[in-house]
Design brief:
EC number: 3.6.4.13
GO molecular function, one term: RNA helicase activity
Organism: Centaurea solstitialis (yellow star-thistle)
Distance between the termini: 85 Å
Bound molecules: adenosine-5'-triphosphate
Protein name: ATP-dependent RNA helicase
Keywords: ATP-binding, Helicase, Hydrolase, Nucleotide-binding, RNA-binding
Oligomer: single chain
Length: 857
């Protein structure tokens, strides 16, 4: 009875349990959570998971990046050095990788530059005669003249090497040239004479690979220059027997290529051979003379080094560590450190030095009117590139027949289907380059050509997939690029371009996405994310994405946008081609570009190591206190209008509210002005932008929103008022003039404390202009006009202006500076009391008064 009760109870429990499970299953099947997220994750879990993955990815990239960056800078240095003498630097750097073979002269000079920096030019010159090998006969002559060579004596630096007595070392270098550089060490093997093997001194000196004697499998045991250098060139002798004994004892540790070695790879790239040999560390005995010691020995191919027991009688010679050499290895002079190869900062200094040198040459060339380096066109035509005939027709109609250099280079690189990071100057046609990367042999065609292929497959589907996603930082730029894409798609009816940008109704976007063709999406990151997160089915449409393009990549990968970009990239398929375009690429951006690009991406640099600005644009700066800035801007505009009848000017201000104030003031002064900034409604912005594109004799007062990508033709002057946030901002603002290879002018107006920024652009061809003489009458007029402006506009400008400077590192930490600035600005706009808006901020910052006005809490 009891047992049957238990049995019943058990079955009841089991039944309940089963029932509960069943209910749970039904519940699950019936949903309750979004089914678009696998693993039963809800939206937030899914989001967090992706965020975590993104963080891990970034960490991984950070680890890999440093090495990558160093390698790239080094290759830039190499390519720069190899091209420095070439007048066609730009053309070459664009069309092909820069690793053309160096002549012996260039190579030695390059190496000397890298390793000795100073005084390298006296290492070798034409007068030293040609570089040549040591012939056996020569070596025999040297030996017969001078007797066997004592390697240790040579190394210890106490004696000259014999060949030197004949005036010239057989390599063509004079001893006196070699000695200070310690290259003499390499010439000193007896084995050279006895075996008669030839030494190619270039290979010894260039050092990326085995030294020449190693080609015959003997002499210096196949040590690379870098190995020797790292070991302080020490050599050592031991007998054949000792060598075999040591080898047999397996004391050796077969070394892999050291990272230093790897980095020091100019010559290994030049001659295309890799450094296969490692090195061996051996415990060795030098015949009982100095006991056991740790030494360095021969190459991995097992060839023993020969010779020299001190008397030079055909015994094996091995290379040993400095520790092994005792007094024979005492260095008389200190070796020049290789720090700059190991230290990233020093590397950038080196690059900087090359840049300024290159700049100087370009300036000199410009002065002599040599060549037309600033031409943006390449000799190639669009119809030579297998672009679809209808696209060529559209291009021709738009006036594009010849490609620009960046278009040519980008299309060529895309042939391999790789991701690409493209750096090209402003106004050189990057837009068409990414809209129309024609990749003939590759199945995944970029941009428009990609869509053309994909749309054939998609024809049967009701809702076509999104094939190309173009991300940009600003709304106006999105509209501009969509318009440009539509021009190229003129004869392709079925392909649609849609813009997704802020400032428009979300619902309108949705309607367009559902009813109109939209294989190409041009979007700003914020609005795109909105769609991804809030519009069901949108993410699924992105799963067919073939190509991702980031225009103004440096800005998009900047801190302000980076998180959004990471989130977007996480929602895109992995199998796609990504192209990043920018006029400036700071180090940090290169680093984080791998968030988007595959590791093996191509780097296309049509700028080279020279400045990112155009030679034809005259750049200058004026230093004057803040109080005078409004008057100086007015003065500069008046002057320019008088000189250029068809003027078209852009004035950049630091914030939207400052833009508004500047606009109000100049309008009060009866100038022909328009304004665009983020505080204006989108419709207004678009209208003004379109007007300014067509206009002449108009001044556009604007903020950062117009700094990048905007293509306003024939802008004659760009004025930047106040310090830019960084070099990229300066270059991009300036890039609104001098487009398509035309000329232009750029003036930057800084307060004295803002001069620090000049350091950031010191390699650019910018010169100082003296502060203009201001007419007292105009001064009075400006003060009157300022007084007529609505105080709320002034207060808002004042507040935003202080906020901007507070965010800048140099002032943000320094209350005194900020108070001074506030005072100056207060004076310039004629405020008599601290604006209410700013009071709170000032209290937070701990300021007691501004311009003598007490701040009450
Ligand atoms: N192949 C071409 N032939 C002639 N003109 C061209 C060609 N490609 C582009 N252009 C013109 O060059 C100008 C600048 O192009 P675009 O706006 O693409 O420059 P960008 O390099 O993207 O500049 P930014 O860095 O400022 O964004 C445009 O007016 C465009 O019409």
């Amino acid at each position: 009875m009891y047992s049957s009760m238990i049995f019943l109870e058990r079955s009841r429990i089991l039944h309940d349990h089963h029932h509960a499970l069943h209910r749970l299953t039904i519940l699950r099947r019936m949903g309750g959570g979004p089914r678009t997220f696998p693993g039963g994750l809800n939206k937030w879990q899914w989001k967090r998971l992706h965020e975590k993955q993104a963080r891990q990815k970034e960490k991984r990239l950070l680890d890999q990046e440093k090495e990558l960056y160093q390698a790239r800078v080094r290759s830039e240095i190499r390519s720069k050095i190899s091209n420095l003498d070439s007048s066609e630097f730009h053309h070459q750097s664009m069309n092909s990788p820069n690793f053309k073979p160096l002549s012996p002269k260039e190579h030695i000079k390059a190496l000397a530059d890298r390793f000795m920096k100073e005084g390298a030019e006296d290492l070798w010159n034409e007068a030293d005669g040609p570089i040549r090998s040591v012939s056996p006969r020569e070596m025999a002559r040297i030996e017969s003249d001078h007797g066997p060579i004592d390697v240790r004596r040579v190394i210890s630096g106490g004696n000259r090497i014999p060949s030197n007595e004949s005036g010239e070392v057989s390599s063509g270098f004079s001893y006196n040239q070699l000695k200070p550089r310690r290259f003499s060490t390499y010439l000193c093997s007896d084995k050279i004479e006895t075996n008669g093997c030839q030494i190619d001194i270039r290979r010894v000196i260039l050092g990326g690979n085995r030294i020449a004697s190693n080609e015959s499998g003997e002499v210096l045991s196949g040590f690379s220059y870098s190995q020797l250098k790292a070991r302080r060139f020490s050599t050592y002798s031991c007998s054949d027997k000792q060598y075999s004994l040591l080898k047999a004892r397996h004391y050796s540790v077969r070394g892999s290529r050291s990272s230093y070695r790897k980095n020091d790879s100019s010559s290994s790239e030049d001659d295309g051979t890799d450094n296969e040999e490692g090195f061996m560390m051996m415990k060795s005995n030098d015949g009982g003379r100095r006991g056991r010691r740790l030494s360095l020995i021969g190459s991995s191919d097992g060839e023993g080094a020969e010779d020299d027991d001190g008397k030079g009688n055909g015994k094996k010679k091995m290379m040993m560590s400095s520790a092994a050499l005792g007094k024979y290895d005492i260095k008389k002079t200190k070796r020049i450190p290789l720090k700059f190869l190991e230290d990233e900062d020093d590397l950038s200094l080196h690059v900087q030095a090359i840049r300024s040198e290159f700049n100087k040459r370009r300036m000199a060339e410009k002065e002599n009117d040599v060549g037309d380096d600033d031409s943006i066109l390449s000799p190639k035509r669009f119809d030579e590139c297998n672009v679809s005939p209808l696209t060529v027709k559209a291009l021709t109609l738009a006036g594009y027949v010849q490609m620009t250099k960046v278009q040519d280079a980008t299309l060529a690189a895309c042939l391999e289907g790789k991701d690409a990071l493209v750096k090209a100057k402003t106004g050189t046609g990057k837009t068409v380059a990414f809209l129309l990367c024609d990749v003939v042999k590759h199945k995944q065609l970029p941009a428009i050509e990609t869509v053309l292929k994909a749309s054939i497959k998609d024809a049967a589907k009701r809702v076509p997939q999104i094939c190309v996603l173009i991300l940009l930082p600003t709304r106006e730029l999105a509209s501009q690029i969509a318009a440009e894409a539509n021009v190229l798609l003129k004869y392709h009816d079925r392909i649609g371009v849609q813009t997704l940008v802020g400032g428009t109704r979300f619902k309108d976007d949705q309607r367009r996405l559902e009813t109109e063709p939209c294989q190409i999406i041009v979007a700003t990151p914020g609005r795109l994310l909105d769609h991804i997160e809030n519009k069901s089915g949108f993410s699924a449409r992105l799963m067919g994405l073939k190509m991702l393009i980031l225009d103004e990549a440096d800005h998009l990968l900047d801190l302000g946008f980076r998180k959004d970009i990471e989130k977007i990239v996480d929602c895109l398929p992995r199998q796609k081609q990504s192209l990043l375009f920018s006029a400036t690429l700071p180090k940090e951006v290169r680093r984080v570009s791998q968030l988007v690009l595959k590791r093996e991406h191509a780097y296309i640099n049509t700028v080279g190591l020279g400045p990112e600005t155009h030679d034809k644009v005259n750049q200058s700066y004026v230093i004057a206190p803040h109080e005078q800035h409004f008057q100086i801007v007015h003065h500069l505009l008046k002057e320019h209008i008088a000189q250029v009848p068809n003027y078209k000017v852009i004035v950049f201000c630091t914030t939207a509210m400052m833009t508004s104030l500047m606009f109000s003031l100049l309008r009060e002064m009866k100038m022909s002005v328009r304004e665009i900034h983020s505080r204006k409604p989108q419709l207004y912005r678009t209208r003004v932008s379109d007007e300014f594109k067509e206009a002449r004799q108009l001044i556009l007062i604007t903020s950062e929103v117009s700094a990048r990508g905007m293509n306003y033709p024939d802008v004659s002057l760009v004025i930047q008022v106040g310090v830019p946030t960084d070099r990229g901002q300066y270059v991009n603002r300036l890039g609104r003039t001098g487009r398509e290879g035309k000329g232009g002018e750029g003036i930057m107006l800084l307060a004295p404390w803002e001069e620090y920024f000049l350091e950031e652009i010191k390699d650019l061809p910018i010169h100082k202009s003296s502060s203009p003489h201001l007419d007292p009458d105009t001064k009075v007029k400006i003060e009157k006009s300022m007084a007529a402006i609505d105080p709320s506009v002034k207060e808002a400008a004042y507040h935003a202006w202080l906020g901007y400077y507070n965010s800048i590192r140099e002032t943000g930490r320094d209350k005194t500076t900020l108070a001074e600035l506030a005072t100056g600005f207060c004076k310039s706009i004629g405020l008599e009391k601290v604006p209410a808006l700013f009071r709170k901020t000032a209290v937070k910052m701990g300021l007691k008064d501004i311009a003598g006005i007490r701040i009450r809490k």
